[in-house]
Every structure is written in structure tokens, then in C-alpha cells.
Design goal:
This protein is of the alpha+beta class and 498 residues long. The chain folds into 2 domains: 142 residues, OB fold (Dihydrolipoamide Acetyltransferase, E2P) (Beta Barrel); 258 residues, 2-Layer Sandwich (BirA Bifunctional Protein, domain 2), CATH 3.30.930. Helices cover 34% and strands 26% of the residues. Strands 6, 10, 11, 14, 15, 16, 17, 18 and 19 form a 9-stranded mixed beta sheet that branches. A 5-stranded mixed β-barrel has the order 1-2-3-5-4. A hairpin with a 5-residue loop joins strand 4 and strand 5. Helix 8 packs across helix 10 and helix 12 packs parallel to helix 13. It is elongated, with a radius of gyration of 29 Å.
């Protein structure tokens, strides 16, 4: 690192600043006052409790603990502000209350140090709720200076790499993750109330199945076999439906070896649920009601604003077939384009590049949708009835075997969920796996692998079943107004600096 790169905003060498703090720590240790030897501290209240219930706390002795984020020394009396898990609160500190030695020690404390503080609650002349300190103890010595004098860490890349600093200096970031926790709890509460059973399925798989995605590989030394981190939990959950559980769900980490952008992180949280004796229309009703209910319970409203666009989750969501949506936007009606040759011709006219192994009507319908329609779907919309080629695990439509009973949820031009009337015909399923293998042989690393055990499970009989998958991180982005998926994942995947 060059000398210029190693300077803080005031031009002081960061190593020098750290050395000053280290010297303070060594002096404390010489005096037998090593803060790192303290194992616990009895606190009675949090800052938010005190500030929201001042009438109850006025004049009462309290004990709080937190990080010093501001400090004003004024001779024999000073002010400092500490930040705890719930917010921040000011403290008045004087030599008369602490005594000369303790007050002298307090003046050496640095921004970022963690302290315990006991005193009584009062209001200053400016009506600020504060604590009149009677006792202060240093609990942890911070050896690094916080960035930008607590006005916020602005380097986006550094914020993701050092989330711990981001959480200290950008309070709104902590609020996002508090909301994340509430959203996850509300999703689970909703499903639990609908009699869905939460289950756990394997993360390490011998086959990467349940979705079209490129997997991460690893090796099991004892078994001497290659294994995959799961790209979906679908096939295991459907095995449980075969086994007699009527309603199951799982929320957990999924892993897809794909590119990274504002919508994608290789490691993300997904949720899938399955219900016996239901179909994709039932899943539409559930998905709409669940997202609306979660928004209402967490945010107090189902009418939100996402990145400057008003989104209405409250009104009935639009439902339109993929073919009709394409016709609305482009004027092209694939209901009357019935051959692969005609579809290829219209794709060429619209300058759609079609991979050699995907030159069929079904694949081209999907190309048209992704190219022309997806970004236009701003208000909540269910796009349903997909081509069979892009839906290898979905039941065909009885009225048109070229299509399947599948839908995806689109909000703000972005996909949030995927659902099927699940394919339960083992013969058809095996044929589709074989077709996927052809795609893999043609170079498509995201195509499904053959899962013989899943075929065996279907041969025992799976009832008609509806299934739904939700991209939980994307839903949290929507409900917290976050621009990037990295803003809602505490520790997103980052390329190492060295």
C-alpha cells in the first residue's frame, strides 16, 4: 500500500493512529486496568427504552453499555454519545461525579471504544434526554479509527467487505437487517398458520437437480465421490409429498455458480413449498396473499415504493399467459405460429439470437418474453402457461401439451417467484430428464441431470401437487427498498483483494 493510500481524511498516517491507541492499551495494562480482562457487564436498559419512556425513567438510575460515537470535552465537564443495539443516547460526564482519576481516564477514551455507564436519566437545557454519569468503565478498547468521523462509510465495496463497520456507522443498514429478520419470521408464521410443515433437506447432493443452474462442486473424501451444493431443494421436498406429508416448506441457502449483479449472489436464501391435491392456481392465490400479508404485517401497508416506483401489492394482481403478454407488447401471436420453422423465421425478423440446440417454438416463445416483455411488468403480475421446453419438472396443460401449468411472479420488471402444477408422471418425467441430458451434452451446463431415485419416488405415486418457490432475498429487497441484493445479505460474496 502506498503512503497516500494509507492516509485518513485528516492526512494522519493510519498506522500512527493505531499505534496511539495501542500505546493507550499498553498503559492501561501496566496499570492493571486491561479492558480485555472484563468478561461481562450488567446493563439494565437500552437507549431506545429510555428515550421512548422518559416519564418512567426520569431521575431513575440506569446502567447502559455501548460504543462511543461522539465526544465533547469541556474542561471539568464533558458530553459523550454512546450507541447500543437499539440506538444512541447522550451522557453528561463531570469530574465532580466521577472523581479526578476516573474523569482523567474518561478523557483518554477514543471514538469507537465500548464503555459501560451508570447514572440517572434527565433532560439537558436543550431538552435532550441524557444520562448523568456516576460511573464509567472501559469494556473494550477500539484499536482502529472509525471512518469519516461517523458521517457514514460511503465506499460501497468496503461496506460489503467490512459489514461490521458498515453497521456501526450507517444505522439505516442495521434497520434493513432488522426488517429482514421480521420478514423471514412473517413468511414462516404465514405458512405455519396454513399447516405447512417446515423441514430440512440436504445441502450436499450427489445430483444437482430441481432447477436449471450451474452448480458448485466439491469432493467427499471418505466416500471418494464428487458432490454438489444444492441449487434447489425441490426434488427432496417432492419426495416428502410422495411419503405422505401433505404440505411442506423449507427456507434456506441455495448455491448457484453464476454471475453476480444487483439481482444475483452465488449464495442466496430461497424458499420452496409444496401442497398435495393443489395446482398452480392455488399457488397463485397463496403467493399473492402471502406477500401482501407479509408486507402489511411488517411495513403496515401493502402499497409500497421501490426505487421511486409505486408498487401496489394490495389490489388483485394481474394474471396473463406468456403468449398473450408477448402479443400485447409485440403484436406477435404465437397461438397462430404453430411450427418450429415459423417461430425461427419470426425470431430472425426480430433479430433474436437463438442457440442451435434451442431452435424450437417453445424456446423461442421464452426468448421473446425475456427480450420484450419482462421489463415492462411493473405492477405485480402472474405470467403463466410456459413452454414445456423450459419447464422440465412441470405438468403439461391438458388442453395444449406444448405448454405447462407454470407461472412466475413479476414486480418492477423483475422475477420474484416460480410455481408449477408439479409433474407427477414418472414416464413423462424420465423423458424430460433425457431431453435435458441432450442439452447438457450440447454444452448447456445449467440443464438438469438425470435423477433416477426421484423417478423411483414418482413411480410409487405422487398426488397432484402444487409447488411454489420464492427468491427470499429479492422479496426482502422489494420490501426494504434496497437497490442491490448485496444490501440485504449481511456478508455477500466478494472477490478477495489479494
Amino acid at each position: 500500500m502506498s503512503e497516500n493510500e494509507n492516509l485518513d481524511n485528516e492526512g494522519l498516517d493510519l498506522n500512527r493512529l493505531m499505534q496511539i491507541r495501542l500505546d493507550k492499551l499498553k498503559e492501561l495494562q501496566k496499570e492493571g486496568k486491561d479492558p480485555f480482562e472484563i468478561t461481562r457487564y450488567d446493563r439494565t436498559e437500552f437507549s431506545k427504552q429510555i428515550k421512548e419512556n422518559y416519564d418512567m425513567y426520569e431521575g431513575k438510575d440506569v446502567s447502559v453499555a455501548g460504543r462511543i460515537i461522539a465526544k465533547r470535552i469541556m474542561g471539568k465537564a464533558s458530553f459523550c454519545t454512546i450507541q447500543d443495539a437499539t440506538g444512541k443516547i447522550q451522557s453528561y460526564v463531570s469530574i465532580n461525579d466521577l472523581g479526578e482519576d476516573s474523569y482523567k481516564a474518561f478523557k483518554t477514551f477514543d471514538i469507537g471504544d465500548i464503555i459501560g455507564l451508570k447514572g440517572f436519566v434527565f433532560k439537558t437545557r436543550t431538552e435532550e434526554i441524557s444520562i448523568h454519569a456516576k460511573e464509567i468503565v472501559l469494556l473494550t478498547k477500539s484499536l482502529r479509527d472509525l471512518p469519516e468521523k461517523f458521517h457514514g462509510l460511503k465506499d460501497i465495496d468496503l461496506r460489503y467487505r467490512q459489514r461490521y463497520v458498515d453497521l456501526i456507522v450507517n444505522p439505516e443498514v442495521k434497520e434493513t437487517f432488522l426488517l429482514r429478520s421480521k420478514i423471514l419470521k412473517e413468511i414462516k408464521r404465514y405458512l405455519d398458520d396454513k399447516n405447512y410443515l417446515e423441514v430440512d433437506t440436504p445441502i450436499l447432493n450427489t445430483i444437482a437437480g430441481g432447477a436449471t443452474a450451474r452448480p458448485f462442486m466439491t469432493h467427499h473424501n471418505t466416500l471418494d465421490i464428487d458432490m454438489y451444493l444444492r441449487i434447489a431443494n425441490e426434488l427432496y421436498l417432492k419426495r416428502l409429498i410422495v411419503g405422505g406429508f401433505d404440505r411442506v416448506y423449507e427456507m434456506g441457502r441455495m448455491f448457484r455458480n453464476e454471475g453476480m449483479d444487483i439481482k444475483h449472489n452465488p449464495e442466496y436464501t430461497g424458499m420452496e413449498l409444496y401442497a398435495a391435491f393443489q395446482d398452480y392456481h392455488d399457488m397463485m392465490n397463496l403467493a399473492e396473499d402471502m406477500i401482501r400479508t407479509v408486507s402489511q404485517n411488517v411495513l403496515g401497508t401493502a402499497k409500497i415504493n421501490y426505487q421511486g416506483t409505486d408498487i401496489d401489492l394490495e389490489s388483485p394482481w394481474r394474471r396473463v399467459t406468456m403468449i398473450d403478454a408477448i402479443k400485447e407488447v409485440t403484436g406477435i401471436d404465437f397461438n397462430i405460429i404453430n411450427t418450429d420453422e415459423a417461430a425461427i423465421k419470426i425470431a430472425k425478423e426480430k433479430e433474436i439470437i437463438v442457440e442451435p440446440s434451442k431452435q424450437t417454438r417453445g424456446y423461442i416463445i421464452n426468448y421473446f418474453f425475456e427480450e420484450f416483455v419482462e421489463e415492462t411488468l411493473i405492477q405485480p403480475t402472474f405470467i403463466y402457461d410456459y413452454p414445456v421446453e423450459v419447464s422440465p419438472l412441470t405438468k403439461r396443460k391438458p388442453s395444449d401439451k406444448r405448454l405447462v401449468e407454470r407461472f412466475e411472479i413479476f414486480i418492477g420488471g423483475r422475477e420474484y417467484g416460480n410455481a408449477y402444477s408439479e409433474l407427477n408422471d414418472p414416464i413423462d418425467q424420465k423423458e424430460r430428464f433425457l431431453e435435458q441430458l441432450k442439452q447438457r451434452e450440447a454444452g448447456d451446463e445449467e440443464a438438469n441431470m438425470m435423477d433416477e431415485d426421484f423417478i423411483t419416488a414418482l413411480e410409487y405415486g405422487m398426488p397432484p401437487t402444487g409447488g411454489l418457490g420464492i427468491g427470499v432475498d429479492r422479496l426482502i429487497m422489494l420490501l426494504t427498498n434496497a437497490a442491490s441484493i448485496r444490501d440485504v445479505i449481511l456478508f455477500p460474496t466478494m472477490k478477495p483483494l489479494v
